[in-house]
Design brief:
Blueprint (H helix, E strand, L loop, with lengths): L4 H17 L6 E6 L5 H9 L3 E4 L1 E2 L2 H14 L8 E2 L17 E7 L7 H14 E11 L10 H13 L8 H10 L2 E9 L3 E8 L4
Parallel strand pairs: 1-2, 1-5, 3-4, 5-6
Antiparallel strand pairs: 6-8, 7-8
Helix pairs in contact: 1-2, 4-6
């Protein structure tokens, strides 16, 4: 099992945001895209027993770690992870059905992937979420072209030096992607370590 220190630190603050916005009912279904180690999925599932979680990843080592966490915790409401590449069309995401999810969560992916992964995330969420359901993303972002504090400026520079297609994305760009996928930007929540949760809501059916 991979133990990611950042995931260990942020899993509870992110859970608190989820609990404030998700009203779990029997049969609620949640998708985590880019689940990483699996620490988030099992933590959320243990706290929200009425929600069935579908984790996903692209890297084989991460997929193995997620399965190991499911086995070690014996949690009953987490499915085995799907191999999902967010840069590819949602139709390739393991047969997931449109309008079927009450929640999609994406943690610390947007700034360390190419923009086509972010575009795929929003297009997929627009298709897979039920009307009025939520997409919650977590990570560091630019706001109206401004990155704060200095530690995030330095982080953004280091990311772009590693890969020019990486870096902190501006919230205004994400709002545009959301609008293009029939979602509206609902709220920004300040989080520890200069991160934010962004909450988008799929529009209701007309």
């Amino acid at each position: 099992m991979i133990v990611a220190p950042a995931a260990e630190r942020n899993k509870e603050p992110i859970l608190r945001v989820i609990c404030q916005h998700l009203r779990p009912t029997a049969g609620a279904l949640a998708l985590e895209l880019a689940s990483g180690s699996g620490q988030h999925s099992v933590h959320f599932a243990q706290a929200l027993p009425n929600v069935l979680w579908q984790p996903s990843e692209l890297e084989p080592r991460a997929l193995e770690s997620i399965s190991a966490y499911i086995a070690a915790t014996r949690v009953q409401n987490v499915k085995q992870p799907l191999n999902i590449d967010c840069s590819q069309s949602w139709e390739t995401w393991g047969g997931l059905k449109p309008n079927s999810f009450d929640l999609i969560v994406n943690i610390n992916m947007i700034h360390i992937t190419e923009i086509k992964c972010t575009e795929g995330l929003f297009k997929g969420a627009g298709q897979l979420l039920k009307p009025n359901a939520l997409l919650i993303t977590y990570g560091p972002y630019a706001v109206n072209g401004v990155i704060t504090p200095q530690s995030n400026i330095d982080f953004d520079l280091s990311l772009r030096q590693r890969n020019p297609s990486w870096g902190l994305r501006d919230i205004s760009m994400l709002q545009k992607l959301a609008e293009e996928s029939e979602m509206a930007f609902k709220q920004m929540v300040d989080m520890p370590a200069n991160n934010k949760c962004l909450i988008f809501q799929k529009r209701s059916c007309v």
